[in-house]
Amino acid sequence: MTDPFGFLKTPRRPVAGRPVQERLHDWHEVYAGQALLPLISEQAGRCMDCGIPFCHNGCPLGNLIPEWNAYARRGDWRAAAERLHATNNFPEFTGRLCPAPCEDACVLALNADPVTIKNVEQAIADESWERGFTVPHPPQRLSGKTVAVIGSGPAGLAAAQQLTRIGHTVAVYERADRVGGLLRYGIPEFKLEKWHLERRIAQMRAEGTKFRTGVDIGRDLDAGDLRRRYDAVVVAVGATEPRELPVPGRELRGIHQAMEYLTLANRVREGDFTAPPLTAEGRHVVIVGGGDTGSDCLGTALRQGAASVVQLDINPEPGDDRPDAEPWPVYPKVYRISHAHEEARGRAGTDPRLFASATLRFEGDASGRVRALHLTEVEPTARRPRPDTEREIPAELVLLALGFSGPERGGLLHQLGLALDIRGNFARDGGFAAEAAQHDAWPVRSRTDGVFVAGDAGRGQSLVVWAIAEGRSAAAATDRYLTGSSELPSPVSAGDRPLVA
């Protein structure tokens, strides 16, 4: 602790984003070009260095937050970066994308404003790159063992980097044409400029990790053959099976899954298209779903020049204060405003969200294209339609951001003989080892030898910090399988869940 009275003398002051009207006209990050220092050092000084730092429990990575806060307060960026990277492979990603459950678990949050942990994390990561502290760490020797990682999202990248650094020869297989998974095509540029991703991939290549893009395991290459070629396989394909909205009119043109829309928008930024094949320009847009993906669609539609944007959230509007049913240090359901919501309010003057609202049906025009959406208010708990609340809103582009039901069921599932759990994810034991599908001759599940499941493919859709934590833990499990023991950290087990009341 550098200042025992810092939290009493210094008020919370988050880093301010660029002006709304400025960022609505470009695709740069919200904080791009903003001066983080010395504000960050001042804010890091608010950390109390608690005897029991509950921020550790709020983060599945077990980030050493009080330690790197103390170093950031003193301006020792090398030491701060070392402590930050000790638990997190990609802090420049989490510092930009994570909703920061660590802040809600901060002891200061009991009766005051928490430390701006997320801002400090991003600043340390960026300073580490800027000052040349973040460099490749190739292994000192090779183990002679080979590992295939299927999927290049945050879980797959974290597992690959850990396994490469310990000395195994690792190849990452990605079905898209570029590495990154949803970091590449699911996250808009205004939240994560892709040069951050390219910089990490370059570091991983320098360490020895190999990347194979444009290879869909299960279709282009038999997953069983892949398993026979490598000593171990880590499945980190994410949970990309989108949830549907089975209401009348769903077949109309102009209704799309959110990831289709976001992927095409990101491909424009990558230079694949001069203009988006699917655009919100000049259209009345309705986003069905109130989560982060819906917010990403909102920010994208605003930048494309939508005539109007409405976001439907079936959940009731939360209050400003932490509910009694969700006490500290759990991550509470409170009224939150994303940068995209802030932008929508800056343009239209009102929150774009309609809470406690559900879609009844779509209505089309004579050409078979959607023109309107009929919605209804719903009861808070049962989510049944409330009588006499039906109304129509214009909808020329509808984006379904309803989340994901698990990994896609394709050749990979059958060729590796994987089982599904009750939630539709790839089944695994507590040590991330994949479980085999049951057969009549062997009714008890067994492990699929040498196959491990990491990230959303086994957990279901979750946060980037959970994906990285699972990738690190699955890497430790894989290393233990290959060598009999492992010195790699394992921050979570496959059954761990976020803090709940």
UniProtKB/TrEMBL annotation:
Gene3D superfamilies: Alpha-helical ferredoxin, FAD/NAD(P)-binding domain. It comes from the Bacteria. SUPFAM superfamilies: alpha-helical ferredoxin (SSF46548), Nucleotide-binding domain (SSF51971). Residues 146-471 form the FAD/NAD(P)-binding domain. Residues 26-131 form the Dihydroprymidine dehydrogenase domain. Keywords: Amino-acid biosynthesis, Glutamate biosynthesis, Oxidoreductase. Pathway: Amino-acid biosynthesis. The keyword Hydrolase does not apply. NCBIfam families: GOGAT_sm_gam. This is Oxidoreductase. It comes from Streptomyces kronopolitis.
